[in-house]
Write a structure and sequence with these properties.
Elements lengths: L4 H23 L8 E7 L10 E4 L2 E11 L5 E7 L13 E6 L5 E6 L15 E3 L6 H27 L1 H84 L1 H28 L6 H28 L3 H34 L7
Parallel strand pairs: 1-7, 2-6
Antiparallel strand pairs: 1-4, 2-3, 3-4, 5-6
Helix pairs in contact: 4-5, 4-6, 5-6
C-alpha cells in the first residue's frame, strides 16, 4: 500500500528540517562545550569571533569560547579544547596566531614546533602569548608605500636618463669601455706571446739546469774521491806522528822534566829579583836579568805548547800545565820588578842615571 500525498509531504518536511539543523550546526560551529580551557593573549584579533574554530596542524581541536579586552587594551581569547589527546605547549615551542581565507572566515591557528623531551604541556587556564598576523590592510598599505617609492625612483631615473649631459657622459663611458676592451685584447695577445717566449726560456733553463746538475754531481764525486785520498794521507800522517812520539817518549819525558825544572828556576829567580828591586845600585842588572827571564819564559811556554799538541800522556800533560803555571808566575814577577825599577828611575832628578 503506497503513502498518501500528505504523508509524503510530511516526511519530506521532517528530512528538510533535519538537514537545515545540520547546516545550522556546521555554520554556527556548534559542538560539545566540554573540554579544557586555555587563554591566548593577542594585541589584535582582527575580527576573530566567539565560536570560531581552533585548529592544531590544520585539524579542528576546539573553539573560541570567549573574547575579552583587558585594562591594557590587549585581547584575552579563551579557547576550549574538545579533542581528546590534544596537548598544547607554551609559545616557546608552539605558535598561536589567527588565520583567514578569502571568504573572510577566521580561526585561531596553532602551529606546533619541536618540543624537547621532558617539557610538560601547559596547564589548564594557563596564559600563552599569541602572534598577531599581518592583515590585508597592512599589506595593502605597505604595498602602496612601496609603489610610491618605486614611482619616485622611476621618476628620478627618468630625469637622470633624460639629461643631455648624462647622455654625453654615457656615450663617453661606452667609448672608453670600447677602448679598454681593445687594449685588453691587444694585451691578451701580448700576454700569449710572452707566455710562449717564457715557455721557450723555461725549456732552455731546464736544459741548462740539467747540465749544471750533471756537472755538480761529477764535481761532488771527484771531491769525495779527493776527500778519501786526503783522509788516507791524514791517517798515515797521524800514524807516523804517533809512532814518532811513541819512539821518542823517553826523550820527550826528559825534555818535559827539564822544562818543568827550568820554569821553576825562572819562577824562583823572578821572585828573588822582586826582593832586590829596590836596590838602586843593581837596577841596571835587574832590568837586564828581567828581560832575559821574560825571553826565556816565552820560549819555554812556546815549547810546552808544541809538546802538548803531539802527546796525550796524562803525566806529561800535568807536567806541562805546571810548567806553564810557573812561567806565568815568573812573567808576573818580572812585570812587577820592571814596574818598580822603571818607577824608581822616573823619580831620580834630571842628570842622574843608574
Amino acid at each position: 500500500m503506497g503513502l498518501s500525498p500528505a504523508a509524503r509531504v510530511g516526511m519530506m518536511t521532517v528530512v528538510a528540517f533535519i538537514l537545515l539543523g545540520l547546516v545550522f550546526l556546521q555554520i554556527g560551529k556548534v559542538g560539545p562545550d566540554v573540554g579544557e580551557k586555555y587563554h591566548v593573549m593577542f594585541d589584535d584579533v582582527q575580527g576573530l569571533q566567539v565560536r570560531s574554530s581552533v585548529h592544531l596542524s590544520g585539524v579542528r581541536i576546539g573553539y573560541v569560547s570567549d573574547i575579552e579586552l583587558n585594562s591594557q587594551n590587549r585581547v584575552d581569547v579563551t579557547i576550549v579544547v574538545t579533542r581528546d589527546g590534544a596537548k598544547l605547549f607554551s609559545s616557546d615551542y608552539f605558535v598561536y596566531t589567527i588565520a583567514s581565507n578569502i571568504l573572510g572566515d577566521k580561526w585561531l591557528d596553532i602551529k606546533p614546533g619541536a618540543v624537547p623531551e621532558g617539557v610538560e604541556p601547559i596547564a589548564t587556564d594557563e596564559v600563552v602569548m599569541g602572534t598577531t598576523p599581518i592583515s590585508l590592510e597592512q599589506l595593502a598599505q605597505e604595498g602602496s608605500q612601496l609603489m610610491e617609492e618605486l614611482r619616485g625612483s622611476i621618476a628620478a631615473l627618468n630625469e637622470i636618463v633624460g639629461d643631455d649631459t648624462f647622455k654625453k657622459d654615457v656615450k663617453v663611458t661606452v667609448n672608453n669601455i670600447r677602448d679598454i676592451s681593445a687594449n685588453l685584447k691587444d694585451a691578451s695577445g701580448d700576454a700569449r706571446q710572452l707566455m710562449s717566449e717564457l715557455r721557450v726560456r723555461m725549456a732552455n733553463i731546464a736544459g741548462t739546469m740539467e747540465n749544471v746538475i750533471d756537472n755538480a754531481s761529477a764535481t761532488v764525486a771527484q771531491l769525495r774521491s779527493d776527500a778519501a785520498e786526503i783522509g788516507g794521507n791524514v791517517r798515515n800522517t797521524t800514524s807516523t806522528v804517533n809512532n814518532l812520539v811513541q819512539g821518542n817518549a823517553s826523550n820527550l819525558n826528559a825534555i818535559v822534566m827539564n822544562l818543568r825544572q827550568m820554569s821553576s828556576s825562572l819562577k824562583n829567580t823572578a821572585s828573588a829579583l822582586e826582593n832586590v828591586a829596590d836596590d838602586p845600585q843593581m837596577r841596571g842588572d835587574i832590568l837586564a836579568i828581567a828581560a832575559n827571564i821574560r825571553k826565556v819564559s816565552e820560549e819555554v811556554a812556546g815549547i810546552a805548547g808544541d809538546i802538548r799538541t803531539v802527546t796525550g800522556d796524562p803525566q806529561v800533560q800535568e807536567d806541562l800545565r805546571e810548567t806553564v803555571h810557573n812561567v806565568r808566575e815568573a812573567s808576573g814577577s818580572v812585570k812587577r820588578v820592571t814596574q818598580k825599577v822603571e818607577g824608581a828611575v822616573d823619580k831620580f832628578p834630571s842628570g842622574l842615571s843608574l
